[in-house]
């Protein structure tokens, strides 16, 4: 039995296809800006946020439509009987047009319009915040690739240095100045470094796969990040909450909740409108027109507590929205504080690693000269080679930890994309950046 017949109806085998994986392409170089823009194009969260903006625009248009004249047609076919002081009248059908214009409703429609304005702002801020999050995620994947590329390069350099040590050991063994075990020790150390190199390359390929899923591009050449990220004023004392899109979104939702309270409270008051209509009635004896122009006042007297319940619910929404504003500020503060601590710690570790690498590099040259003069053993030489490699890897790890912390801080402060020259709001205000 074909596999497709288990899932598809008979006759649909030719049309049935498994879901294909997202396409990827190879490029000689992938710049930071291009990586982020391509991630924007592929990330479904951004498409969802953009779609929500369109929903908000439609809801705003619907709310504003209440101030426009409402025109309707009505008609019916069938026998009806009407009795009044003038007698009785049988109608076989009627048809007409009605025009209704809202005059004043004590804030019901105005509150609805203001609510949708605030929600539209919130959805736009949500889109900008999502762009910021996707940009941070992409840069972190980008940095992971460069981290393991640098570690793999350090491992190759150490292997090359160990091979020169092996050559010295072999020459001394051939000259009878040392035993053959020196060469075996060097070969063992080289084999261990080859294993480390294989591990770094595997981690690099894994990081490249993660980046290619985000961007749709696989590239071996990734330029460095701009130094401005490391030079930004990192501080947790003066975070720009007033310019953070996550906070602005929460505040807009709070303002929308306040407008819902206004709408609910307005339900206690009447709605005033004017209505005009012209209806044609058909009966067995004759036909006639019924014209009307009326001032309509719709004033609810008692609804079983429904209006008060709506007010209470709206006030609960406002309290929830206020808490969301504070929660977004707390989240930003926590992310910024963690990034600040990681950044300062990584910078100190990098300085220590650089100093260790410089010291170990000088010692390596001295040890090699002393080994040639039989004043040092091969174990001393291999030990200093290990020290050099550990210092290099410590410095590389600290450097990319600092980059990652700088990216996370810029994302928490919501100026990451601005520092990279990527505009989130352009001519219209909610257009997505394009390649």
Automatic annotation (TrEMBL):
The keyword Membrane applies. SUPFAM superfamilies: Outer membrane efflux proteins (OEP) (SSF56954). It is found in: Cell outer membrane. Signal peptide: none annotated. Keywords: Cell outer membrane, Membrane, Transmembrane, Transmembrane beta strand, Transport. Gene3D superfamilies: Outer membrane efflux proteins (OEP). The keyword Transmembrane applies. Pfam families: OEP. PANTHER family: OUTER MEMBRANE EFFLUX PROTEIN, OUTER MEMBRANE PROTEIN TOLC. Belongs to the outer membrane factor (OMF) (TC 1.B.17) family. This is TolC family outer membrane protein. The lineage of its organism: Bacteria, Pseudomonadati, Pseudomonadota, Gammaproteobacteria, Enterobacterales.
